[in-house]
Design goal:
It is a single chain. This protein is mainly beta. The protein has a single domain, classed as Hexapeptide repeat proteins (UDP N-Acetylglucosamine Acyltransferase, domain 1). The strands form three sheets. A nine-stranded mixed beta sheet has the order 1-4-7-10-13-16-19-21-22. A hairpin with a 2-residue loop joins strand 21 and strand 22. It is globular and about 45 Å long. The N and C termini lie far apart (33 Å).
Amino acid sequence: MQNPKKGTGIVTGANVEIGKDVSIWNYVVIGDGTKIGDGTLIGSFVDLGKNVTLGKNCNIQAHVTISNGCILGDNVFIAPNSSLLNDKYPKSTFMTPPTIKNGAAIGGGVTILPGVTVGEKAVIGGGSIVAKDVAPQTVVAGCPAKVVMSLGQFEAKREAFLAQHKVK
């Protein structure tokens, strides 16, 4: 672990691998066998289960739960109060954790159910419940989450919003 920035109250399990230039804020739990890629930021009150893999340059904001066995690619963003669940029929011994591909963005208060794959550069709208796989470069929202627009449409709306508010 090179150049880590660590807050207070961090609980780290056995055989945890933390890459270089990782920032971990306060009161984070990191389960056994978890791997955190270079440049990743983990906000306060995050719970990372056992054998979780976080790619490089991820941004996991506060109050996020990532259950045992979940795999996140590089450059994944997860907004506050989101949960990635792994047990389809609690309480079982067979876990089916979700997989989040490179560049996906997950809004605040999202729940991703077991066995779901979120494709590359997909966007999940805040408050959604994701029960089915999300195709790459697709924007989904709702309960249950459904396709609402393409990534291109989302980016155009985002750019228009930022231009209107003169944000770079």
